[in-house]
Amino acid sequence: MMKAIRVHEFGGPEVLRLEEIPVPSPGPGEILLKVEAIGVNPVETYQRGGSNPALPLPWTPGTDCAGTVEDVGPGVEGWEPGDRAYTSSSISGTYAMWTVAPAAATHRLPDRLSAEQGAAIGIPYATAWRALVQRADARAGESVLIHGASGGVGLAAVQIGRALGLHVIATAGSPAGADLVRAEGADHVLDHTAAGYLDAVPELTGGAGPAIILEMLANRNLGHDARLVAKRGRIIVIGCRGPVEINPRDLMVREADVRGLLLFNATAEELAAVHTGLAEGLASGSLTPVISRSFPLAEAAHAHTAVLAPGASGKIVLLP
Ligand code: NAP
Asked: Domain segments of the chain: what residues?
């Protein structure tokens, strides 16, 4: 038996209950991981509330974790018990002491990274890579505005943007978040809580506007983004919590694109390319996840409140 968080009814953070359930078994093509750290993503709060396509209950949240291989199912090659790994596609849920994931979605964790850092790779780094490389088609020398750079996805995008040779303008909403974004390599940092903070963007991009905007809160910012983006620029909608008014004429005169991104839509081939692309930077040090806070697994409810609170400065993880 193992400890795991279980959800029996959709609702607020209080529906996250610590229970004892059987340790899952890996099926064909699957790996059993001993979980050492768990990545907490905003999507798990939406799922817990029942707003994303409702999940069958009872449910163990979580797709991201890092740990060691405990056992492998039939047909799995190249993995041995004790190997360090991370995944972003758990089948059984990662808010638990053990989890089962497809071997194809389980990746080597470089020795230089802790388990907490490994748990921060999955959704955030895959989303940031997909945004810049697969959706925005970023090219070295282009400018990117990362609108909401202090959280899990944003910091990953800052590091990936630097590694790709982009000129990075990034926003944060707290002094600690701004300091962190700057330390992680942003060329310019703006405070998205300050009045008129976007006025600086044209000058920071030589008058042209950013070629790429990665948007973490489109319901607040998309209308402004459409007026800021460069001619033939690309706005990638990553985060959105409601409707927004935008003047399509702003896109028309710039011949700019608004492109949605949903990581769960990526094909197996695209995901394999994402993790191959990330591997070099994770090993060499250009990509290094930053942890803001860790909570014991039993305090998953606090972690769910914290991940939606303003003032992000890195990634929130749970420790089993
Ligand atoms: P996170 O760690 O909680 O970070 C949230 C970020 O949003 C912080 O940087 C926060 O900045 C920023 N923010 C707050 N107010 C903002 C504003 N007015 N303008 C711009 N940014 C603002 O969350 P995350 O994991 O990075 O995810 C970010 C968003 O993307 C979430 O909505 C998440 O659901 C979504 N997401 C979508 C996908 C997908 O497949 N489409 C994948 C991953 C994540 P401060 O806290 O400093 O104010």
From this structure: 2-121+289-319, 124-264
